[in-house]
Structure formats: structure tokens, C-alpha cells
Design brief:
The complex is a heterodimer of chains A (about 260) and B (about 325). With about 260 residues, chain A is an alpha/beta fold. Chain A contains 5 helices and 17 strands. Chain A folds into 2 domains: about 1-95, Translation factors (Elongation Factor Tu (Ef-tu), domain 3, Beta Barrel), CATH 2.40.30.10; about 105-260, 3-Layer(aba) Sandwich (Rossmann fold), CATH 3.40.50. Chain A starts with a strand and ends with a strand. Chain B has about 325 residues and is of the alpha/beta class. In chain B, the strands form 4 sheets. Chain B has an 8-stranded parallel beta barrel with strand order 3-4-7-8-9-10-15-16, surrounded by 6 helices. Chain B has a 4-stranded antiparallel sheet with strand order 5-6-14-11, with no helix packed on it. In chain B, a hairpin with a 2-residue loop joins strand 5 (about 65-70) and strand 6 (about 75). The chains are: A alpha/beta (about 260), B alpha/beta (about 325). The interface between A and B is large, with 32 and 40 residues.
Chain lengths: ~260, ~325
């Protein structure tokens, strides 16, 4: 873990209100362990917004890190105004990684909304390691998609309104792919309702599943104890000190679906 | 002048019979137990580490959401999540033997017996702990803590009971959420406290107008960060005018200028809190920066600056 002032290589809008930023961050890369990890970004040096913002790493190679973010409020709006050549202070890499994505299983990668970045990162890692997989990407409508629906190449898009890809949520294609493939393993990141649905499905059908969860973080390094999620597995002692809660920043953000519960 | 930057001796301050190598401490609840700081910082440079609040029994803390950013600040409602004093003694005290910074253990209780019991358990151990900061001002638990911090008689009684049981430093941590912080401070002083620290967080609320929901599970939480610095400075200065024991100032310290302001207001030492969440190395950075500040000023030492704010009348 280190703090690095990273040079912004590019910052572009890739879909409606969704931006992709590439950073020159050799320090972060030198300690990077894999998809699922995040960086904690200081969007401005003033203290108007005291806290850093955790952002999943969407890609990490050749000394460069990318993030994908949606404009939600003031901080992400400020981030979107940054230009190539500006720099920005990042803390990282933080958190754990997806595991067990290998040829013993058939990975089904599921990303919804702003939860897509670590899933795209995992897709790149699967491609690099020549592991067959399917990716399923959910969004509310076609404006939020920046990847083409390509079922023949195992890229499946869904939209709530049917404006691109399949109509409906990610649950239909997940169910279909699981029935087609041997030893499926779900890896998912997205809005909480999506993760709740996937968790329920995975437990009911006994499908191994890893979820990357989102949490409001104060520090990202385990000091503030703010980013808790309820644990299911009370006898498993991790970095957090408590039985009931786990700290998403240091124990997570990736959990086996059976180990956590949503409020 | 450059030589002085690397000579930290002029940063030493004393509280009770203890000399601290510098006045930059890290505040309770912002630095864990002092043992889990990220490896990117050197905790031994700090004047002291104040631990998170330790209670008699382990506490899970409050359900999420526990934290939200607010303009120039943040609200937290962690709910005193901690491992409890027995596990603290077993797991943390041995680790402190390897640290060269001073450890101040923060204690919280729901009644006077709990504070006493924790302190007695600690005093029965051999440990390198320098002293105790007594949390009588946590806004985030339903019961306890606060009821002492708003009542002079209860503050006096608690301070007296603890004083009679230890020779280590006793620092009473005062709440800004009272009508007269000075009277609570005086009650602490008159009952034997070595120092007071001020301020704990200010009760606050944050609402999401889009969802109509409170942004904190417990509805109200503790506001901290630069947003509360003026409240902290006023509290420290009022305490300084009426008390003779040292005051440890805190509330929104993020820069060496903030440290200087708190010292001019009357602080002998300061605690860095919220800034640790943005950069856990803030305290370490401020030690170098405050030395540079003193070296570039007309002051000979930090001690000379204490309480020397110029008042207009």
C-alpha cells in the first residue's frame, strides 16, 4: 500500500454519464495483486471533500491503472472535469482479489451498473490466462452500455427496458448459462439489489459465488471501522476484530456469497 | 534555520510528570489500537497514540451506514466497536512493548463501575501504557458516556474514583455538546485530572433528499473534520482561560497552521483525527511541518506559544 500522485493519461465519457480514466501509476502497479482490488482517490487537495473515494481497478497493466465511474454527485463531477496531464493522489492498491478463477471451473462474470470495472478486469485476466468464460452485463438502458452485445462470443448484455441486449435483469442469462456449463462459478459486482438476487440464487442452487461488495468507506485501510458488512460465518476470524461484522476495506471487497448477508 | 528543522527537541511538551517528544498525537477512534497502522507510516514518530475506546465487554458497534461525508467534514456513528478490555490486555499490550511512542488508552463505560473495573484490570497488569483518556463524551451510544460528560458532579465523582486508583496520566475527554464546557473541565481538574482533551465530535445529522433517508443508521452521529475547527478552538480557549491543567486540543486539525492555532488558543498538545482517514501519515507529516513553522516564526519554542493568541480587547 502506498500513496502516489498519479498522472492522468486520459479521462473520457464512454457512455451516458459514465467515464473512464487512465492513470500513470507505476507504484500502484508494483504492489497490485489482481482484480477486485481498488484504489482510494483524493479528488481534490482542498478539504471541501475530506474523504477519498474508493474506486475499483478496471485494468492494470504497463504501469497504468484505469477506473470507470458514473457521475453521481459533486465529487464524481469534479473527477470528470480532470484533464489529461493533471495529476491526482491515489492510495492503494487496497483490498483482496477474486480467487478460484481457473480452468477447474467455468467463470460466469456478472457486472451491473458501476459494479462493472472489477468484472471487466477479471475478464481481461481470464482472457490472458486462456480461461473460457461468459460475461453478463446489466444496465437500466442502452445509454449506460459501452460494450456490444455479442452472445456468440459469450458477451451478454441486459437492459431493464430492452433497449439493448436481452430485456430484463442479469438473472435470466445467469440461470441459462449455469444450466449449459459444467462447474459454473459466479463472480459478480453491482448494485446491492443485484447482489442480493445473485446471492439468493447461488445459495439456493448451490453455485459457488464470489461477490465484490460496495460500502461507504472513511479510510480504506481499516482505521475508521466505517465500512462494515454483516458476516454469516461467525467462526472465521479475518482482519476485522468482530464476530458480526467484517470490514469491507481490508477483509473484502470480495466475499464468498455464503459468508455475508445484506441488511 | 535548516538545522532546526531536524532538531525536534524544541517540540517537547510536558503533561503531568510525563514529557512527550512532540505535541502531535493521533485521536481516539482514528488510529485503531495503535497496532494496525498501515506500513507506509512510522508511528514511533508520533507524540502519542490515543487508542480507540475500550469497554469492559467486546462491542460489535452500530449497523451500517456508519459514516458519511459532509461539507468539510464527516459524520460517524461507529458505536464504540472494540474487542473489550480482556482481549485488549492479552493481544495489544505485548505489541506495545515494541513501540517507542507513548500509548494513551481511551476508556469508555456505561456506568462508573465499568470505568473503574477497566482501569483496575489495567493497573493490575504491567504495561508500558502512559495514561488514560476517559471518554465521557461519545455521542454514538444509547447509554452511558455522555451522561458523565454533561454533568459536573458525575464528572467529578468519576475523575476522583479513577484518580485514586492510578498514578498514570488521567485525561478527561470533554464534549462540545454541553451548555458550559468550562464547568465540566473545572470539575475534572478539581478532582485530580492531569489534563483535559477537547473536543469530542459535535452531534450532527445528514439526510439524503433523493431517498428521504438519514445517511447514518443511528440517525445522529458525531461531526468531525475542518467543519468543527472553530468550535474546537473556542472550547480550548475558554478552557485555557479558566483551567490551570494542560489542554489537549482537537477538532479539524489538518495542517501545521491548524496546530499553531490550537496551541495559540491554549493547547499543550493536539490530536489529529479525521485527517488520518484521508492520509494515515498526517500526524507524522505535521511533526516536520510544525517544526518548520516554529523555526520560521518569532517563537523560540512551541511551549512559549501556548495560549498566546492576541485578543482584541
Amino acid at each position: 500500500m502506498l500513496i502516489e500522485r498519479a498522472h492522468i493519461i486520459s479521462n473520457t465519457e464512454v457512455a451516458h454519464n459514465i467515464w473512464e480514466m487512465f492513470l500513470d501509476a507505476p507504484g500502484i502497479i508494483s504492489e497490485y495483486k489482481g482484480s477486485g482490488q481498488f484504489i482510494n482517490i483524493l479528488v481534490e487537495d482542498s478539504w471541501n471533500h475530506p474523504l477519498r473515494r474508493p474506486m475499483s481497478i478496471a485494468s492494470a497493466k504497463d504501469g497504468k491503472v484505469s477506473i470507470i465511474y458514473k457521475i453521481f454527485g459533486d465529487v464524481t463531477r469534479i473527477l470528470s472535469k480532470k484533464k489529461s496531464g493533471n495529476n491526482i493522489e491515489v492510495l492503494g492498491p487496497l483490498g483482496n482479489t477474486f480467487t478460484n478463477w481457473n480452468n477447474d471451473y467455468y467463470p460466469i462474470l456478472v457486472g451491473g451498473g458501476v459494479g462493472l470495472p472489477p468484472i471487466l478486469n477479471l475478464k481481461s485476466e481470464c482472457e490472458f490466462s486462456k480461461i473460457d468464460h461468459t460475461i453478463i452485463i446489466g444496465a437500466r438502458n442502452s445509454n449506460e452500455h459501452f460494450i456490444a452485445h455479442d452472445p456468440e462470443n459469450d458477451i451478454i448484455l441486459t437492459t431493464d427496458d430492452g433497449s439493448s441486449g436481452e430485456s430484463g435483469t442479469v438473472m435470466n442469462p445467469i440461470d441459462r448459462v449455469i444450466k449449459e456449463k459444467n462447474r459454473p462459478y459466479i463472480f459478480a459486482c453491482g448494485p446491492e439489489p443485484m447482489l442480493v438476487a445473485i446471492r439468493d440464487y447461488s445459495l439456493k442452487n448451490n453455485i459457488p459465488t464470489q461477490l465484490s461488495v460496495e460500502s461507504y468507506m472513511g479510510c480504506g485501510v481499516g482505521l475508521c471501522q466505517g465500512c462494515v458488512i454483516s458476516k454469516n460465518n461467525t467462526d472465521k476470524k479475518e482482519n476485522s476484530y468482530h464476530e458480526q461484522y467484517s470490514l469491507v476495506c481490508i477483509d473484502g471487497p470480495v466475499y464468498e456469497s455464503k459468508d455475508i448477508q445484506f441488511e | 534555520m535548516n538545522q532546526r528543522i531536524f532538531n525536534l527537541s524544541n517540540l517537547e511538551v510536558s503533561i503531568g510528570n510525563i514529557t512527550f517528544k512532540n505535541p502531535i498525537w493521533v485521536a481516539s477512534g482514528t488510529f485503531g489500537y495503535g497496532t494496525e497502522a498501515p506500513d507506509l507510516i512510522d508511528v514511533n514518530k508520533l507524540g502519542a497514540i490515543v487508542t480507540k475506546s475500550i469497554t469492559r465487554e467486546p462491542r460489535e458497534g452500530n449497523p451500517p451506514p456508519r459514516i458519511v461525508e459532509t461539507p468539510s467534514g464527516m459524520i460517524n456513528s461507529i458505536g464504540l466497536a472494540n474487542i473489550g478490555v480482556k482481549k485488549y490486555i492479552k493481544e495489544m499490550l505485548p505489541v506495545y512493548e515494541d513501540l517507542s511512542t507513548k500509548i494513551i488508552m481511551n476508556i469508555a463505560g456505561t456506568d462508573i463501575h465499568e470505568y473503574i473495573e477497566i482501569l483496575e484490570l489495567m493497573e493490575n497488569q504491567s504495561s508500558s501504557i502512559t495514561g488514560y483518556e476517559i471518554n465521557i463524551s461519545c455521542p454514538n451510544v444509547n447509554k452511558g458516556g455522555m451522561e458523565f460528560g454533561i454533568d459536573c458532579d458525575m464528572t467529578a465523582k468519576l475523575t476522583e474514583e479513577l484518580r485514586s486508583r492510578t498514578d498514570r496520566l488521567i485525561i478527561m475527554k470533554l464534549s462540545p455538546n454541553v451548555s458550559d464546557i468550562v464547568s465540566i473541565g473545572k470539575a475534572s481538574q478539581d478532582s485530580g485530572a492531569d489534563a483535559v482533551s477537547a473536543i469530542n465530535t459535535v452531534v450532527g445529522m445528514s439526510i439524503n433528499a433523493n431517498t428521504g433517508k438519514s445517511n447514518i443508521f443511528t440517525t445522529y452521529g458525531g461531526l468531525s473534520g475542518p467543519a468543527i475547527k472553530p468550535i474546537g478552538l473556542a472550547a480550548v480557549n475558554k478552557l485555557y482561560k479558566d483551567l490551570s491543567i494542560p489542554i489537549i486540543g482537537m477538532g479539524g486539525i489538518v495542517s501545521s497552521t491548524d496546530v499553531a492555532e490550537y496551541i495559540l488558543a491554549g493547547s499543550t498538545s493536539v490530536q489529529v483525527g479525521t485527517a488520518n482517514f484521508r492520509n494515515p501519515g498526517t500526524g507524522e507529516d505535521l511533526i516536520d511541518m510544525i517544526d518548520t513553522y516554529v523555526a520560521g516564526s518569532n517563537w523560540k519554542s512551541l511551549v512559549e506559544m501556548i495560549g498566546k493568541v492576541e485578543i482584541h480587547n
